[in-house]
Each structure stands twice: as C-alpha cells, then as structure tokens.
Design brief:
Structural class: mainly alpha
Number of helices: 5
Order of helices and strands: HHHHH
Oligomer: single chain
Helix content: over 70%
Radius of gyration: 30 Å
Length: 181
C-alpha cells in the first residue's frame, strides 16, 4: 500500500492521505462515542442502584433516631402538653420511617441487599413493637409509670435500637461496597 502511495502524484497522494486520516479519525470518534455511551450507562446504573438508595437508607436511619428521641421525650417529660407533643412527633417519625422502607426495597438489586432488607424489616418490627409498649406505658404524668418505662427503654429499647440501627448500617455498607465495585 505504501509503495502504491509513493508512485502517485503529489496531489493524489495528499488526497488519499487526507481521506485515510479522515477515515481513521472517524472510526476513532465512533469508538469514543460508543465508549462514552457505555460509561454513561454504567454510571447511571451505579447511581440508580447504589448511590441514590444510600440517601433513602440514611433518611430511614434518621427517622429511626427521631422515633427513639421522641419516645425518650414522651417518657421523660412530666408535663402532659409536652408528652402529647412528643407523641405526635413520634407518630410522624414512625410514618416517615415506614414510608421510606418501600423506596429502599425498590432499589435492591443484589442478594446481599435482599438479606439486609429482610433483616431490617425483622429488627425494625421488633423495635417498633417494644417502642409502642414503652410509649404506652410511659407517656403519662404518673412518675412511677414513667420510671418503669424509662427502665424498660434502657433495658429493652436501647438494645433493640442498636440492632435495628446495625441492620440499616449493614445495608448501607453493602450498597457502598457494591457501588465501589
């Protein structure tokens, strides 16, 4: 091919060389465009499946902390209007938490995530059951009942909270790990 090119007149040689250069550049541009599309697609997949769900998981963790905080307030205050206000905040936090769970479930794409989610549901159900019992017992102006609820919160609710929180953290860690891969 090179010999043929050398035997051509300069004008023809320049034309053919230019066409070859344009052809090579065009092929390189097409390959680059295809690669950019693939990278963008993969990046979108990572965002959708791993990064965005981390926000939902973080929100659920914050809602869980709000539930705990409101319960502590409800069983700790002695003024009925403060107790009622804390119970309202508690109930809203529980609603928010339960509304976030379906969003988390929709984003799960790996077996590890399914296992983590099932663990979250189980530990959260346990936590909310204990929480409801303690809130019912302690959301009162009766100092003796409040003290019993506070003791139960320390003995039963705190470990249930730690377990539920660890379950959420497990899913978060798995999402981070899978997203990094």
């Amino acid at each position: 091919m090179l010999e043929k090119l050398e035997k051509m007149r300069i004008q023809r040689r320049l034309t053919v060389s230019s066409l070859i250069t344009v052809l090579i550049a065009s092929v390189a541009a097409i390959i680059a465009a295809i690669l950019l599309f693939v990278v963008a697609s993969q990046y979108n997949k990572v965002l959708t499946n791993y990064a965005f769900p981390q926000g939902d998981i973080g929100q659920a963790m914050a809602d869980l902390a709000d539930v705990r905080s409101a319960t502590r307030g409800a069983i700790g205050y002695s003024d009925q209007s403060q107790i009622d206000q804390m119970v309202e905040i508690h109930d809203q936090a529980v609603e928010d938490l339960q509304a976030t769970l379906p969003e988390i479930k929709k984003s799960i794409v790996a077996k590890a995530g399914e296992k983590d989610y099932n663990n979250i549901v189980a530990t959260l159900d346990n936590y909310l059951e204990v929480d409801a019992k303690i809130l019912k017992m302690g959301a009162t102006t009766d100092a003796e009942q409040s003290k019993k609820a506070q003791d139960a919160a320390f003995d039963e609710l705190a470990p249930a909270y730690a377990t539920a929180s660890e379950a959420f953290q497990g899913l978060m860690d798995d999402n981070i790990s899978l997203g990094d891969k």
